[in-house]
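Apologies for my clumsy wording, but are you able to produce some protein sequence, whichever is easiest, and the tokens describing how it folds?
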Amino acid sequence: MLLVTCAIACRPLLPVDETRYLTVAWEAHVTGDYLVSHLNTKTYAHKPPLLFWLINAVWSITGLNEYAARLVSPLAGIACLLLTAVMARRLWPKSTPLLRCAPLVLASTTLWTAFCPLTMFDTLLTSCTMLALLGVLRAEAGDAKTGWLMAGIAIGFGILAKGPVVLIHVMPAAIFAPWWSLRVRTSYGQWYAGCFAATVIAAAIGLSWALPSAAAGGKAYSDELLYGQTAGRMVNSFAHHHPFWWYLPLLPFCLLPWISIGTVWRGLRITKLDSSMKFLLCWAGASLLILSLVSGKQIHYLLPVIPALALILTRLLTAIQGPIPKRDLAFIIVGTIVFATLPLFANHLSSPYEAVMRNMVADWYVLPLMACGVMLIPWSFKRAESTVFAVGTSSILFVIILIVSARSTIWKGFEFRPLAQTAASHQDDVAWYGLYEGQLNYLGGVRYVHETRGVDELSQWLSEHRDGILIKELSAANVDAMQAAGIDAPNSSVATATQLEQITQIVRADSEFPGHQWQPIISHLFWIRPRFPLRPLVVVRFENRPNLNK
């Protein structure tokens, strides 16, 4: 919870995902339409509505409070830690150390600490996945009616959380249950009848929203909702296309620091492949294989797999009796200390990335970051529970310090609020040149931003909105010209009048700048990270405007 609180307090909404999802939830609140999602007044079929519904449920109590809305997804992640403890108890009821260690192992894995504090769909999907799999385990233990009902409802809500992808994480463990359960081998018919019943329940829950929503949203929305976000992404992704093996080299980094402990690898040699381990391998292995076969890949798609891998790592870590040798923590201690010193090199040594990396983390933060490694030295040669507590706490504290250290540097660059407030003063007379993804609507209370992608579209819009402003990211050539004039990314986003005049002359002289022939005037300059590199976004007025009505 401390990690989540620090992350929400220290950083703004991150573009483009968090700003987009808060905008979709806000538009539902403004319009009162909770059936068909909208982004910038246009139908939005890319994600199901459960996250947006939950945010609006919170807003019905707190009002339009940003911090309350940003707690929804992280609270689902915290619920996953509790579900991990429940699952550990069910899989290994006699192993108290495993029950105590598993939630902390999950909470401190690299991928979990990175994505749990974000407003995204994956922690919500993970909680639904774990509830469904607990239902499968309950059915396997003999309580078929309650177990399959629980699994079906959880899968149904998983569909509402992120679509049918929840089936990838749940159904392989259910389908291959005869491999991991002796009890299932004696009643194939009843088991697969239960699988079918759970699927029907899940489909009924998902379709109870999808069909009315598709009917209300129109044909284009219906096609995108019912096909584009499932089959289209599975077969030939329109976004995030990567090769089959893309996840494999990234997976070890996702499981740090635990995968670097030698005790885990020694535990691999002595741990039996029992029913519980087979269940977890079905869950993690099949999910990873299917996700690798899917065309579209993002690292956070692996989040529902991490609890299974955390349970496996905890099982291996607690399998060996006695103290964990000192050498097993050497990599973590040395690695943490070395990594902690990187800001010193970035701040004081010349490199090709000097302009990007320098002063992201102040020098003095090196000391508390190094302390996270040093504090582990006294915990060497301790029993598994003590070591897990020390390593997990150190890892989470390290991430918290990094988050806090970036408050006035990296995070400041992601702040879209000043630009959104400038746009809000013009309301419907705002255009965005290029792809617009809802960065301004929620933050500025702007109902509509016109997206224009060419000079002809811009000309038409300017002729209809005589007082309108254009927001555009400057090109690399414009940035080079600015740097030659002595204008670079400042500590403050406020540009002087002289600088704005210089930039105005630069864009007027650039024949590639859209609308340069209409005498653009730069009224505001904002240095923002649309994704990560710091880029200049300008607010443009035009001294002369096209008049297409003549």
